[in-house]
Amino acid sequence: MSESTKLRFLSAWYCPFAQRLWIALLEKGIPFKYEETDLSNKTEEFLKLNPRGLVPVLVHDDKIIYESAVCVEYIDETWPQNPKIMMEQPYDKAQVRIWGDYATSKIIPLFYSILRSDPENLGETQKSFVENIGSFVKAMSPTGNFFMGDSFSFADIMVYPWMQRLEVLKHFKNFEIPSDIDWYPRFQKWLTACYERESVTPTIPDMKKLIPRHKRYVKTK
């Protein structure tokens, strides 16, 4: 059995949570077998792997792991070679975990809240979204391209897929992050660096196909 078949990555091309793990696998240079999953027609085999019916799912030999953040930590510990996504030093590791969790709990839910918001509530939701992104950006290292400076890490991976999808919010809600905010240049520097990262580029979906998939979240009245 080849090395790639020992590690199966069940994904869906449009899923930002699966994109997290995809980026991490490419960043680590780990051989794997990509398996596209039809989440609208879940098989019994897939539901046995993850009863929650979600991607990503990682199958490593006979071990099954799911939940994107857990999967990313798992591969970083199982394949400890550089680059270290979770960082080397305990304090740095704590920081990327703190801000990875912040992205998951304070930024990502508001992305979907904007799509679902009534017009009368949209402004307040957008304001909170911008403020929370600002808190994330202000916590970044002032030097280097990434959250931890020169090191591309767990913190970047946890939030980037949704920042790459800001075009979705522009399309449906005419939302853009104001360019006159003081932290905007640092945000753009980070966003560009992530977009151009070799481990990220192959995972970026076609926006023309991706945008229509978000219509189910949108509330217009």
From TrEMBL:
Listed GO MF terms: glutathione dehydrogenase (ascorbate) activity; glutathione transferase activity; methylarsonate reductase activity
| Keyword annotations | Oxidoreductase, Transferase
Q: Which residues form the GST N-terminal domain?
A: 5-83
* The keyword Transferase is annotated on this UniProt entry: yes
One GO cellular component term of this record is: cytoplasm
Keyword set includes Ribonucleoprotein? no
Q: Which domain of life is it from?
A: Eukaryota
Biological process GO annotation list? glutathione metabolic process
Reaction catalysed? Answer: L-dehydroascorbate + 2 glutathione = glutathione disulfide + L-ascorbate; RX + glutathione = an S-substituted glutathione + a halide anion + H(+); methylarsonate + 2 glutathione + H(+) = methylarsonous acid + glutathione disulfide + H2O
What InterPro entries does the entry give? Answer: Glutathione-S-Trfase_C-like, Glutathione-S-Trfase_C_sf, Glutathione_S-Trfase, Glutathione_S-Trfase_N, GST_omega, GST_Omega/HSP26, Omega/Tau-like, Thioredoxin-like_sf
Task: Describe the location of the GST C-terminal domain by residue ranges.
Answer: 89-218
Give the EC number.
1.20.4.2, 1.8.5.1, 2.5.1.18
Family of this protein: Belongs to the GST superfamily. Omega family.
What does this protein do, in the record's words? Exhibits glutathione-dependent thiol transferase activity. Has high dehydroascorbate reductase activity and may contribute to the recycling of ascorbic acid. Participates in the biotransformation of inorganic arsenic and reduces monomethylarsonic acid (MMA).
What's the name of the protein? Glutathione S-transferase omega
